[in-house]
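[job 4471] stage=fold_predict status=RUNNING
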Amino acid sequence: MDLPTILKYGDATLMAALNRVPDSAREAGGVCGVWSVKDIIAHLASYERMLIEVFLSLRGTAETPVLEEMARLGDTFNDAWVEMYRQKSFAEVLTDYREGFAQAMALAHQFAPELLRQPGTLPWYGDEYSVDDFVVYSFYGHKREHSAQLDVYADRLERARDATQPKR
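[job 4471] inference complete, writing C-alpha cells
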C-alpha cells in the first residue's frame, strides 16, 4: 500500500463531490444529519489535525491534544469540533481543511512504508493494526463516506433545479 496515494485519492474524491455542490448550498443543514457541507468539511479538518498528530507522534516529537480530546469527548468530539468552526466562513473552513491535508501529505512522505504497515505502531488503535490500516479506515473510507453524502445532496439539488425548469 502506498499511503500518500491513498490520502491523495481520498482527498480527490472529496473535492470532486464538493465541487458538485453550488456555493450557495454549502451552509444549509440536512446533508449529514443536521450537518451542512461546511460542517462536514469542518469535521474532516479536525481529522486532518488528528492525522498530523499521528504522524508527528511516530517521530516522537509532538503532543497530541486533538487525539486526547477525541478520547476525552468520545461521541461528542465531532459536534464539538464542528461548533468550533461555526463562526468561520466556508472559505476559512475549507482553507483549514486544505492546509491540514497538505501538512498531513507532506508528513506521510517522510516515513518508510515498512513502518507504516507495521502492526502495533499505534497501540491505542489496536496492536493488530498498522498506520496504513488506520488511514484506510479512518481517513480514506471516512472521506468516501462523506463524499457519497455530498453526492447525494448534489443530486437532490440538481433534481430540485430540474423540476423548476420549464419543459420543452
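[job 4471] summary: The domain at 3-21+29-160 is CATH 1.20.120.450 (Four Helix Bundle (Hemerythrin (Met), subunit A)).
[job 4471] exit 0
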